[in-house]
Amino acid sequence: MRKIEHLGIAVKDIEASNKLFTALMGAGPYKSEAVESEGVITSFFANGPNKIELLQATNPDSPIAKFVEKRGEGIHHIAFDVEDIYAEIERLKGEGFQMIHDTPKDGADNKLIAFLHPKGTNGVLIELCQEKK
Ligand code: ZN
Asked: d(Cα 58, Cα 21) in Å, to the nearest integer?
């Protein structure tokens, strides 16, 4: 893993949260994108080399809807940038980590992504992401 790529924050109302984070960070989102497969709308904010992703559910079956219902708004995941997501999944499985996705899928921001199960990572949802080549 090369660096933390972004922090994901689950929100109820992305319009309101976009305004809040624009005021907080002094600049608006550089990208907003719907990810159909995850049932979310996302916004990305840049802060130097770091990024924050806001996620709002678009349907009640979305993992974000379930998270907000259970735990409220807040930090949802930490995403790590990886060079080769396929190799990293194999390496982590070899270390005994449980993957939610054994094969990467399309994520926001032109990335291939896969999540680890938070049961095996101290309750923290970890996302691997690799820039699509
Ligand atoms: Zn993410």
From this structure: 20
In 11-102, where does DSSP find H-type helix? 14-25, 63-71, 85-94
Q: Tokens in use for 97?
A: 């980590």
Ligand 1 centroid, distance to 95 Cα (angstroms): 23
25 alpha carbon – ligand 1 mean position (Å): 19
pTM exceeding the 0.90 threshold for the entire prediction: yes
- Predicted confidence (pLDDT) per residue in 23-68, tens digit: 999 999 999 999 888 899 999 999 998 999 999 999 999 999 999 9
Ligand 1 (ion): residues with CB under 5 Å are 8, 53, 79, 127
- Ligand 1 geometric centre to CA of 96 (Å): 23
